[in-house]
Backbone:
């Protein structure tokens, strides 16, 4: 059965966001079926990042609600949403440059660790055991994203592509059910982008994680997505399979144009 027939793991209903008199998102409904890979596209200023920020709790919608596993999460703090199972990366990489790759991943595990101040200060056996397990899991994730050899490298010394993968590893450290990727292939060359497509599929197939991408590279979007939603000027103007979106006249006029349709062939 197609993953698009599965129940939504994340469901945004009638979301509107108004900044002053500007309507950034206008009554948009959108869901991520469990086990799916879906994409959100649109021209600059279409409202994609604003909508993304509503899903992760950085913004509160002016109206509408977001449901995760059937529970309303609108109004929860971003760190509680992340700890609950919705992880994200950012368009601008946000790593701790003077921490190692392993340390960057371990930072994200904090919300799942049980050691308190006393056990940490006194270096009790339970704290030492938990830290050892965290290091082992961090290494597992670095291996999974194919940068296992960078464990003790400072994040700032990694290549751009490896920094992107490290950011994904850090997001995976939250043990999410949903992973939101904001422009993950920005700055990558075509070969790196093609590898990233396979990487996204690997995350879904081997980790069982549902994935939402905001992405400008139409070749990536068309290859990896099972469903694509298109925003323009804050409104949802189309939604469907890559084939349906590629041939949608309104989408072509608003965003894809000749370049996009050629890239998706």
Residues:
């Amino acid at each position: 059965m197609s993953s698009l027939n599965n129940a939504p793991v994340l469901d945004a209903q009638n979301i509107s966001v108004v900044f002053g008199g500007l309507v950034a998102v206008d009554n948009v409904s959108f869901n991520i079926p469990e086990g799916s890979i879906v994409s959100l596209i649109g021209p600059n200023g279409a409202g994609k990042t604003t909508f993304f920020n509503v899903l992760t709790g950085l913004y509160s919608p002016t109206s509408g609600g977001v449901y995760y596993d059937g529970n309303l999460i609108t109004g929860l703090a971003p760190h509680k949403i992340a700890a609950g199972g919705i992880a994200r990366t950012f368009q601008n990489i946000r790593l701790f440059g003077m921490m190692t790759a392993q340390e960057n991943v371990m930072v994200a595990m904090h919300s799942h660790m049980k050691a308190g101040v006393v056990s940490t200060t006194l270096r009790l056996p339970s704290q030492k055991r938990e830290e050892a397990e965290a290091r082992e899991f961090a290494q597992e994730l670095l291996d999974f994203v194919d940068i296992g050899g960078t464990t003790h490298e400072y994040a700032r010394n990694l290549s751009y592509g490896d920094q992107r993968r490290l950011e994904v590893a850090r997001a995976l450290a939250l043990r999410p059910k949903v992973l939101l990727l904001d422009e993950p292939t920005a700055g990558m060359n075509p070969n790196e982008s093609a590898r990233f497509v396979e990487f996204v599929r690997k995350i879904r197939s081997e980790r069982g994680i549902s994935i939402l991408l905001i992405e400008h590279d139409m070749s990536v979007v068309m290859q990896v997505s099972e469903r694509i939603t298109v925003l323009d000027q804050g409104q949802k103007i189309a939604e469907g399979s890559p084939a349906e979106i590629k041939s949608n006249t309104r989408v072509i006029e608003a965003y894809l144009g000749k370049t996009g349709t050629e890239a998706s062939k």
Observations:
- Residues 114-122, 258-265 have pLDDT under 50 and may be disordered.
